[in-house]
Structure formats: C-alpha cells, structure tokens
Amino acid sequence: MTIFNEHFLLQSDTAQKLYFDYAAGLPIIDYHNHLPPDQIAIDKKFETLTEIWLKGDHYKWRAMRTLGVNEQYITGNTSDEEKFLAWARCVPLTLRNPLFHWTHMELKNPFGINHYLNEDSAAAIYKNGNEQLSGNGFSTRSLLQHFNVEMACTTDDPCDDLAHHKKIAADSVFTKVLPGFRPDKFLMIENHEVFIHYIVTLESLTGIDIIDFEALVNALQQRVNYFHQAGCRISDHGLSIMPSVTVMDTGMHAELGKLLKQRSNSHFPYAENFRGTLLLELCKMYEAKGWVQQFHLGAIRNNNSRMFAKLGADIGFDSIGNFNHALALSGFLNELDKTNQLTKTIFYNLNPSDNEVFATMAGNFNDGSVKGKIQFGSGWWFLDQLDGMTKQLNTLSSMGIISTFVGMLTDSRSFLSFPRHDYFRRLVCNLFGSEMDNGILPNDDQWVGSIIKDICYRNAKQYFNL
C-alpha cells in the first residue's frame, strides 16, 4: 500500500470531516485546460498508458531530462513501453516534487492501482493499465464523466471552425465542453511570419481585407461573434507581462497599414503599442458579450533555442520570469474600467514573489457589481503544487476575500489530470481544518464547510453562469 489512502493530506479529524462532508463529492468545473476537443468529439480510446499519460506532458519530460534520460525515451521514436519504463525508473527520484503525488493519484484514480511506480512494478502496472484502457470506461467522454466534470473549457485558436465542439454539443455529452478564445498569435506581431500567416487565414475566414487596424478589429469581432454562438464565454491570454501602452498614433497606424498591405518580412517597431491597443479592443468585445477574460502572466518561454529549433514549443523549456507587473497591469485594467468596460477577469501569477501585487491589484477593480469580479487566480504551472497553492491561498486570504475564490483548474492536456482538483480540495480542507483546530477559525464545520463548497465548486458555477 502507499501513502495515497483516503486520508492523504488530511492531517486531522477536522480536515477529514471538511473534506468528506463538504468537498469530496462535488462536481468539477475545469474552466481552463488544453484538452484536445477532437479527441472528445470522436470519444477516443487510448491504447497505452504512455499515449494517455506521457505524450505531451512537459512536466514529466522536464524531470526526465534532469535525471539524465536520453531524449529518445522522451519525445523520440522508441516504443511506448520503453518510454513508460524510462519514466517508471524516474518516479522514485521525484520525491518532494509534485510529480510524485500526481503520478500516484492518477494511478489510483481512475485505474485503482495502489502501488508505487518504480522499475520493479513498472511492467505489471503497464500491463494492468493497458488492459483497463482496452475496456469500457476509459474513452475520453467516459473519463470526463468518471471524474464528474460538469464543465471543461478548452483553449482554442480564433481561426478554429469549432467543428469538434459543435459535434460534442450535438451529442449531448455528460460534460459541457466549451471553447475558449485564445488570440495570442494575433498579438505577437514580432513573430512576423506567424502573424502574417494568421492574418491571411483570418481574411479567408471572414471575407474581410485586412489592410489596416480597423479591418483587423472587425475581423476579430466576427470571430468573437462566431465563438459566442458556439458557446464560448471565456477568453485567455498567455503574456509575459501586460502591455504598458494602449494607444497608437497616426504614424504607427500608417506603418501597420504598410505591413498589412505589403505582407513583407519587415520589422514593425511599435509592437508594444500594437499589442496594447489590440488587446484593449478585444477586452471591450469580451465585456460586451459578458465573457470572462483570463491573463496568464509571468513566463519566459522557449529559453533553450537549440531544443526549440529541434522540438518546437511547449516541450519543457520554459521558466518563471521576474517582470515588473504592477504598473502595466494597473494601467491596463484602469483603461477598461474608465468606461465601465472591464469584464469579469482572472489573472494568474507565475512568480510567487509577486503574489501580493496580484492579490491587492484585484481589490482595486472589484466594484460591487459582481461577487469576486476580479480574481487572483489559482497557482498555475510551476506553482500548482502544495507550496505554491498554499502561498496563493494564504495571500488571497490575507489581502482579499478567500470565500469568493473560484478555485482550481487543471491547465492540462491530459484526461488523467483531474485528480489535481482533489489535490487542491484536500489542501484547502487541511488548511482550514488546521486553523479550526488551533483556534484561529471558528470550530463550526457547517459554517466553514459552506465556504469550502463555495471555493471548490459553487463560486465557479455562479461566476461562469453555468
């Protein structure tokens, strides 16, 4: 047996009561993930544990490289079984990294495997897992239902036709699977080749000749309308830092017009002005539709240029940045708030040294119109582990109102990542339970338990109008 029993992380009777009576059975609202909607549309079944569990998981890849595993066993062309065995040999060496917890929680649920994964157990666990995957109950839709996922919001390109989402909706799947609008590539004008490619694609979709800023805004408005009709109610943006300026003068507009008309590989010297001005227009569109907007801030991506050239993006070579967020974030939110066009907003911080900045910034723009309108989002990426989540919860509690928090998300590409919600819920119950035991909070489990329910489920359900 392992440490991952029913009382895992619950260090007192009070914590256990909070968890089992108020948190454990709640549905999951996973309002930001990177699940592939095409796999849900066809109700895909997976052949091996490697396919469902290791492929695309840059958390595991990063750890394997650190432990000296050759790339051929990570993203290379070795067999699925060889890759799984390579990961299994790594797992015992991941103690105190969240991967050790996640790995065994995901083996226990949904596979019911209650053994530590290591070199000795790997072959039997691989065989057991593969046999279960071949049976009923492990297709993408079945897994969503198994984990009681009420809503899952994917991350989608504005040029996507959303055909997979339409099929999912038509099939009346147990889980409401909604698209999320992610326009990052239209904001990164520095990446000229990709930017122009997307402009051409957007033109073909909308029938609009994109020869100036106004035409680009009109074309994107058309896509926002299209996404809205398909059920989208959430946007998302991955930025290192919020734009510090939100205006373009006549000369800048003229330069942009030349670029859009000529489609030449020329440098645009006003990228920050363009990004801020276009993002401001997009955020006004979101407010008009009643969407929630999300900003994931603070990452330095693709640090290793050699590996980026070899393998591409999102393969485990990103890290935490040390940006000066306060003024840019404040200025951008204020620009929207001036005209009462600031919609419900969640911003996520990647550097724990900035937690207090983000937590207090939310309070500047909560105006009483909506409970918890501006949210300091959950610990994400490098911070969705016990220490990172605890720091986020403590900072939000001290400098905001934790009872309005919309809770956890997976931010994952894997259909096995939903135990992260359970991880979060156990942490929350233990955090509140320990303070009840120590006389810091009232020893009233109904009072505290109701807030636990809000944080783990009910606030998100209300916030996203489900």
What are the main properties of this structure?
uronate isomerase, domain 2, chain A, about 50% helix, TIM Barrel, 5-stranded parallel β-sheet, single chain, 3-stranded parallel β-sheet, alpha/beta, about 475 residues
In short:
The chain has 466 residues and is α/β, with parallel strands linked by helices. Helix content is 50%, strand content 8%. It has 2 domains: 13-46 and 139-463, Metal-dependent hydrolases (TIM Barrel, Alpha-Beta Barrel), CATH 3.20.20; 47-138, uronate isomerase, domain 2, chain A.
Structure commentary:
Strands 4-5-6-9-10 form a 5-stranded parallel beta sheet, with helices on one face. A 3-stranded parallel beta sheet has the order 1-2-3. A two-stranded antiparallel sheet has the order 7-8. The chain has 466 residues and is α/β, with parallel strands linked by helices. Helices cover 50% and strands 8% of the residues. The chain has 2 domains: 13-46 and 139-463, Alpha-Beta Barrel (TIM Barrel); 47-138, Orthogonal Bundle (uronate isomerase, domain 2, chain A), CATH 1.10.2020.10. It has helices at residues 13-23, 37-41, 49-54, 58-66, 80-90, 98-108, 122-134, 140-146, 163-170, 184-187, 192-206, 213-229, 250-262, 271-289, 305-311, 326-338, 355-364, 386-399, 419-437, 445-463; strands at residues 28-30, 149-153, 176-178, 180-181, 234-239, 292-297, 299-300, 319-320, 344-349, 374-376. The mean pLDDT is 97. α11 (192-206) packs across α12, α12 packs parallel to α14 and α17 (355-364) packs parallel to α18 (386-399). It has 20 helices and 10 strands.
